[in-house]
Structures are given as C-alpha cells and as structure tokens.
Amino acid sequence: MSWFWETEEQTLRREVKEETGLEITRLRREFVYHDRHYLPSRIAVFACEASGEPRGSWEGEPRWMPLPPREAFFAAQLSILDRVRDMRFPL
To answer: How far is CA 30 from CA 3, 35, 44, 84, 88, in A?
Structure first.
C-alpha cells in the first residue's frame, strides 16, 4: 500500500523491508502501467537488488515459487507479465 506522501521508490523500499526484512540497495523503474479492467490502477514495475537475510512477517514467509500459468493471472496483470518476461533485468 502506498501512502500519499511517498514516492513509488519509497513505497517499494518500505514494503520490501516490512514484508521480507531485505534492504533495497539498487533500483531502476522499468515502466508504469495504467489499467481500468476492474478499478483504475497505476502500477510501477522496478528492477532491483536487495541485501540482508529474508525473514517473514504477519503476511507470511518469503520464498521462491514457480511462475503460475497465464490462466492464473487477472486480465489486468497479463500485459505486465508479458512485458516483464521480455525484459532484461540485470542492473
């Protein structure tokens, strides 16, 4: 969740820290996506590097998972998924 006084970068850093315990060390905004499928939304997609030891939060434990099939995504997410799959993320 983004607070109105935060930049996108500040929100990313705070949320990653809260949910995983990791500190973002480098980041680059890749693109911003606007959607109106269900609710008007604006989603910023970043490439980033982080340091530290992952830890859980009240939201669960961080873990790597395989990417689900396309059918598991909402229509609003498919455009982002396609763009991210085609990108090169090393910083």
So the answer is: 21, 17, 8, 9, 10
Higher pLDDT pick, 67 / 52: 52
Residues 79-88 have pLDDT tens digits of 888 887 777 6
Residue range 26-37, pLDDT digits in tens: 999 988 988 887
Q: Hey, what are 50's tokens? A: 């982080």
Alpha helices in the chain (DSSP H): 8-20, 75-85
Task: Name residues whose C-beta falls within 8 Å of residue 32's C-beta, 6 or more positions apart in sequence.
Answer: 42, 43, 44, 45
Q: Does domain 8-85 have CATH number 3.90.79.10?
A: yes
